[in-house]
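Hi there,

I know you've been waiting on this one. I reran it after we fixed the sequence typo, so this is the corrected version. Both the input and the resulting structure follow.
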Amino acid sequence: MEPPTGADCIIIVSGLPRSGTSLVMQMLAAGGVPPLTDQKRGPDENNPRGYFEYEAVKQLQSGAPWLDEARGHAVKIIHLLLRHLPLSGHDYRVILVQRALAEVLASQRAMLARAGKVAAADAALEQMFSKQLAAAEQWLSEHKIPYIVVRHRELLSESRTVAEEIAKFLGRDLDLDAMCAAVDPLLYRERLT
């Protein structure tokens, strides 16, 4: 299904934590889509280029008066909060970032280890994350919200192709060279295969 285009749509970048959502936000910003972010969570060892978060998103289930500010912007929303998006009055395009679950879990373990914390058991998390992602895609489909799945590995190995697919999906003339330049393969840590 070809989504309608519009400069006022709200571009949502979603996925599991540590799946590459910040990278997609960087690519969109480089390509010409302004990010909706408050810079409250700055760059650190886990995300040297920053998280591109907007604190008010965390309260989405309680309401989203900030959504009008997001028109024409990209905003990062964790996969679990997608179902709290208001279904009327807004035009969404969702970029759902997926990464091999083993790599997501390895990245989360490394992030927690740097903070002196211990991660939960991988098997339980992998099953839970798999169900959550399937539920997010089902919700988007049921509510006819246009979305595209972008795979983390392809972001790094086929950046130009992915950038072109994103631009086509959004119906926007993006700076593809700048989007590709935003990809730094050295930041692909916890690569398992």
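Quick highlight: The beta strands are 10-15, 74-76, 92-98, 147-151.

Best,
R. S.
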